[in-house]
Amino acid sequence: MPSAIRPGDVLAGRYRLVDLLTESGNGRFWRAHDRVLERHVALHVIAEDDERAEALLEAARRSATVPDRRLLRVLDADRADGLCFVVNEWGAGDSLDIMLADGALDPRRAAWIVSEVAATIAVGHEAGIAHGRLVPENVLVDHTGGVRIIGFAVDAALHGLPPGRVSTDVADLGGLLYSALTGKWPGRSESAVPAAPQDGGRVLRPRQVRAGIPRPLDALCDEVVNPYASGTRLREVHDVATAQGICDYLCAFVGDPTGLAAAEAAAGHRGTETVSLPAMTDPPVRAAVPEPDPDPDPEPQPEPHQEPHQEPQPEPTSTELPTEAGLPIFDDDNDDVSWLTAPGEPPPPPPPFEDPPERPLFAPAPSDGGPARTPRHPRPVAAGRDEYWPWADTGAGGTGTGVRVFDEDDEPEPVPGRSSLRVAGAILACLLLLVAVVVAFNLGRGRGPLGTKSDDDPSSSPTGRTPTTAAAGPISGVTATDLDPQGDPPEENPELAGLAVDGKPATAWRTNTYTQNFGPGGLKTGVGLVLDLHGTHTVRSVDVTVIGSPTAFSIYVTDEQPADVAGLTPAAQATASEPRTTVDLDDAPEGRYVVIWLTSLPQVPGGFRGQIADVTVDG
After folding, report:
1. What DSSP string runs through 107-132?
2. For the Protein kinase domain, which residue ranges apply (predicted)?
3. In the β-sheet with 551-558, what is the strand arrangement from edge to edge?
4. pLDDT at 160 exceeding the cut of 80
5. What CATH number does the domain containing 584 carry?
6. 591: domain range?
7. Same-domain check for residues 114 and 234
8. How far apart are CA 609 and CA 551, in angstroms?
9. 63 — phi, psi (to 5°)?
10. Which residues touch 350 (CB under 8 Å, ≥6 apart)?
11. Using alpha carbons only, what angle is made at residue 594 by residues 590 and 597, rounded to the nearest 5 degrees?
């Protein structure tokens, strides 16, 4: 029985069991070591008297006849020691279910991986052999970036299933593409990937689960996964009822696959095998090599009758020395490390500054160059005064604050630019006076300061009468288009947009049905309608009639036709708890386009959907 074998046992005298990977249905899946070829293998083991034993051996024989490089091939199958076992090639990498645990894949990457699987399945179908259980756990991307298939025909036999059918493999190929694009599994076989959402027994399209999926891949998944609910639109042009047709369809979508395998290898797919390494002893610690003396004295040669000179052993250093921070120096030749430490003695202090010579408190500083300036009438130094008075010898370069002695006939030098400033000030005063006279004249004859006619002047009207303000009311001739900037393509039932402004509450524009509501954590931040007023108007209020509550929306008014609401400021926000809601715009903005942007949808069976039955703009 499988329960009697343990790690370390040798099966059939050749395969040493290393790690037990999984156990289910009275069967075990081992990583084993082939002692003959010195390599790791995958080993499926069940009891010899198990009712699946004969079907397992027959499935192994059929799988071994399929020649394809992407298969983890069957290497051996036999009965021994009361057990029935199948030996497969060992693969190291990440299975698709593990990859999807980090999130759905990029559409082109998902299409390429499934196209590789479809090519292998097509080779098996040509030989008359089907996989039978093509779940994400049986698709492996190894560390070289290659796609490998696990358990071809064998996995179905281990699960007690009959030999696989071609139609089952084709449906599973659509399920693999669906799960790679959305992270949900729509197939019937059990998988660790979460199940795909359904609506009335029909699996939701990938674009209803995740935004941004290209339409060609969405249409392929919907037709293969829901063959009876979606019709046969693709099959009229492409043969998607076969594995080869799906492979050709996906290869046309991917285009040139150059670099995709290298990108998968660079993604760092890890090996799934568990390797136990023997314990290692710690490496010996190399003793520090003492640095040589910079000027070593020559070692005296021993006399013939004397013993060789013995170098004295260094004294053990004290362990109580303080730790000093240093810079490590690595020697690349012998792996030694030395430390560059700070000098032990501090540097000598700088020499003291010389004291400057004493001089009076208000004496100017000595000049740093240039010819000395002497007064026009030098005066002799009076008796009893020091050499600094009147500082004639200090030169003109000083900026001292001392008092200068002028002669009575000294003339003050004119300040540069003073006359220009006076002229400029006089001109400015004249200009101000002229402007004041013009303003007073215009105000005196009943006009504005600049001579323009005032708003209350009857003559300012083209007809000579006082203009009247247009009365507020509903704006007619409004047309509507859908706005879905986050869709691919950016459209949201455009053929129904005109029903929101036709004045008939019985007809309505509606959004798609979403599995999640709008908002920061939803598939989108919102969708909406753009109302064209066909002219600039002052918008005072908007009357919105919705179907289903609560429905939250924002209103934007702009002069340019918007392609997105990002960057726009809403004129008003409201949540409709009743069918009809009137939203007053306090600032009465002006513009040609009014956007009704739905930010939260009411819940309906199968998800969330919003509907706008009628919109009226008053201005």
Report:
1. HHHHHHHHHHHHHHHHHHHHTT---S
2. 15-272
3. 479-483, 527-538, 590-600, 551-558, 572-576
4. yes
5. 2.60.120.260
6. 479-618
7. yes
8. 9
9. -65, -35
10. none
11. 135
